[in-house]
């Protein structure tokens, strides 16, 4: 089965006609997520890390359909907020699979999670500051505790996503043994150590990964000898996926081997918690072309998705592949017959940074075309926002015929409706506005 699941799904592997039809049915912009692909990605990672506990980093895509599919495959859920813990507990069978990684946790989050712990005593809280331990103790928490350390080394696709050395994350690894000893003495159930080096780690950063896991191995051995055994060592997520068409996938086996070597004889289970790896290439964002104009130095193509729909290009200069589905469908065998011209594809937001690509060679766009933006399944909808009072888009999931709930012959299902103008203004309390405006 895995042999049939390629390590990478390129944008050109998607069925252009089927995607175009989804826009006809559900409108634009539209996120599409293939749940079967999410499951395949999970199984591939599981076969590279057969003995590890695998948690899914919910922040990459928190859609309940994704959480349910991955829970069903056997993943635990790593959460970055009380809101994510709430979703995770709803999706998973038990709290034992749920880890809450508290980063400068607001009081409201700690209150909520400690409350939930009463009902789910097996959940794990990962803390990255001694303050957080004090605050948990004040709330009567003495459950499962994991310490996030700052290993002093970062990696990842952009400096903004390198967490391993960033001041805000974790307790410096040198202090970890003391902090854990103190927590154990205070009655917490000390179960693990954790660190996350960064996000989007590629094969050419394998040496950084090796150095990182070897520091984790050293730390685990010190903890074992000075405090006692741990249940798990969590080395975070961060496994990169190729966004450029010519880039090779991460060598997962090499990552797994380096990790096993570094932990060596440590008597604790390995835990990994990737997010992007499971969902990135399972998702595309579809968007309509509404404007084509000769700008001063480039052909400017306006689309209805923008930085409010997919923030990554504006925030990290992230590259996402783009395919003109309409042009592809005009030619034979999905090859466009249109002339290729450099173009700048931009959204409707009043910011000059609201562009998906600059001067990229693509088939000449025409008004009414549908474009697909690839690798949009991770940190896509999750980072969408309502800037410019723009409602967030709809999301459709694709399911295999055997799993689909309905028997209408359709494998696509609306998973999250498009927001309305009312969704944007609903929290406002201005008395001069009627409670139910127009969508
Ligand atoms: N564990 C922890 C503690 C994390 O902070 C993260 C990501 C993960 C796991 C999952 O990392 P992944 O496997 O998905 O790389 N918005 C950025 C990515 C930010 C990631 C933050 N932390 C982006 O779009 O590239």
UniProtKB/TrEMBL annotation:
> Cofactor(s) for this protein?
pyridoxal 5'-phosphate
Keyword set, alphabetical order: Amino-acid biosynthesis, Decarboxylase, Lyase, Lysine biosynthesis, Pyridoxal phosphate
- Locate the N6-(pyridoxal phosphate)lysine modifications and list their residues: 59
Where do the segments described as Disordered lie?
389-439
Q: Catalysed reaction(s)?
A: meso-2,6-diaminopimelate + H(+) = L-lysine + CO2
Its EC top class is lyase
- Show the ranges annotated as biased composition (Basic and acidic residues): 400-436
The record's active-site residues are 350
Kindly list the positions annotated as binding substrate: 276, 312, 316, 351, 379
Q: Biological process (GO) annotations?
A: lysine biosynthetic process via diaminopimelate
| Domain Orn/DAP/Arg decarboxylase 2 N-terminal per the UniProt entry, residue ranges | 36-280
EC numbers on record? 4.1.1.20
**Which pathway, per its entry?**
Amino-acid biosynthesis; L-lysine biosynthesis via DAP pathway; L-lysine from DL-2,6-diaminopimelate: step 1/1
Q: Where does pyridoxal 5'-phosphate bind?
A: 238, 273-276, 379
Tagged with keyword NADP: no
Offer an example of a GO molecular function term for this protein.
pyridoxal phosphate binding
Q: What does this protein do?
A: Specifically catalyzes the decarboxylation of meso-diaminopimelate (meso-DAP) to L-lysine.
Q: How does it assemble?
A: Homodimer.
Query: Mind telling me which HAMAP family this protein's record contains?
Result: LysA
Q: Member of which family? A: Belongs to the Orn/Lys/Arg decarboxylase class-II family. LysA subfamily.
Stated name of the protein: Diaminopimelate decarboxylase
User: Source species, please?
Assistant: Natronolimnohabitans innermongolicus JCM 12255
Gene that specifies this protein: lysA
